[in-house]
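wait is this the right file?? whatever heres the structure
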């Protein structure tokens, strides 16, 4: 259980942040950028949850919890606790494949009632869908940050799959919120 009695520690005043394994990284380090993007995404989902039906809000809260798992996963570099004195009962929180499978099932469920796309869609349509589209765009940025991190050091492949699937889920969810009545891109519509 997490217990936070004191919010400020002053340990980050030097421009670094501590990871789960006790190492410190610069706040601009690729790992910290990815963690920050996931945190921003979580906040955007909280904002989106305020404007959707309770069942969808429940899905978004579930995803917010997954994003805390993802942040913990990213804050614990792979191999950080691969030592003989690390007991299997010690907790290292990782994203598991089943979390992406749940997203796939939700995508299929929401997508089943939607008409096929005939054009790219413009993010918007309704306030709730626009908030979900904003979260989707932040998800894509977080995914790029995680891919950049993975190019430099090992990252849990299930975490990468999860964030990739999440952007798909949010796209389909925004369409479902709009009941398929999405504003469509009209190529060259404003050219003279």
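ok assuming it is, sequence goes like this
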């Amino acid at each position: 259980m997490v217990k936070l009695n004191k919010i400020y520690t002053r340990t980050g005043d030097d421009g670094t942040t501590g990871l789960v394994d006790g190492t410190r990284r610069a706040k601009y380090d690729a790992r910290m950028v990815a963690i920050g993007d996931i945190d921003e995404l979580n906040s955007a989902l909280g904002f989106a949850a305020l404007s959707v039906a309770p069942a969808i809000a429940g899905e978004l809260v579930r995803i917010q919890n997954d994003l805390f798992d993802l942040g913990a996963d990213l804050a614990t570099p792979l191999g950080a606790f691969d030592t003989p004195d690390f007991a299997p009962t010690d907790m290292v929180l990782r994203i598991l494949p089943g979390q992406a499978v749940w997203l796939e099932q939700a995508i299929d469920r929401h997508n089943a009632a939607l008409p096929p796309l005939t054009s790219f869609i413009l993010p918007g349509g309704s306030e709730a869908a626009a908030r979900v589209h904003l979260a989707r765009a932040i998800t894509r940025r977080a995914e790029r940050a995680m891919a950049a991190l993975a190019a430099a050091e090992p990252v849990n492949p299930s975490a990468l799959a999860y964030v990739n699937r999440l952007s798909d889920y949010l796209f389909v969810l925004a369409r479902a919120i709009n009941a398929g009545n999405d504003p469509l891109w009209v190529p060259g519509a404003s050219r003279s």
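Residues 80 and 86 are 10 Å apart (CA to CA). so i think its the right one actually
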